[in-house]
Write a structure and sequence with these properties.
Shape: rod-shaped
Number of helices: 4
Oligomer: single chain
Low-confidence stretches: none
Number of strands: 0
Strand content: under 5%
Structural class: mainly alpha
């Protein structure tokens, strides 16, 4: 890592994630995607087709009690996963806000120092102008 490179909060945060945090992010990213939605709609369509019109054994006859059970379990798991992910995002937002606050405090100090230097320079310039006027 380059010693002169600026501090990268995001890289540092990603490196500190636990296995559970990474798993929650992966699940959230997977279940919150259009790919998952389309795959799940396709799965339900195939399930319904195989259990209504196909000539093979119907393991879950209409009104698809087993599918409803699976959907309820999936909804319960997704709810928990989304809460975990939301909790993590709150923690990330709080950490970013703290980092932004510290950056702003440091920047304010630097601006105040620069303004102080600028005031001193203006005073010196005023003194030089007075000296030049008196020496004419």
């Amino acid at each position: 890592m380059n010693v002169n490179a600026p501090f990268n909060w995001h890289r540092t945060h990603k490196e500190s994630l636990t296995v559970g945090d990474r798993a929650a992010d992966a699940m959230r990213n997977g279940m919150g995607s259009w790919g998952f939605v389309f795959a799940f709609v396709l799965f339900m369509a195939i399930w319904a087709a195989l259990n209504t019109v196909a000539s093979i054994h119907h393991w879950d006859k209409y009104p698809f009690i087993l599918l409803n059970l699976f959907l309820s379990m999936l909804a319960a798991l997704q709810g928990a996963i989304l809460l975990i992910a939301a909790k993590r995002m709150d923690a990330v937002s709080a950490a970013m806000a703290e980092h932004d606050y510290r950056t702003n405090v440091d920047a304010k100090k630097e601006v105040e120092e620069l303004m102080s230097i600028n005031r001193q320079q203006l005073e010196h310039i005023d003194e030089l102008i007075k000296l030049i006027k008196t020496n004419r």
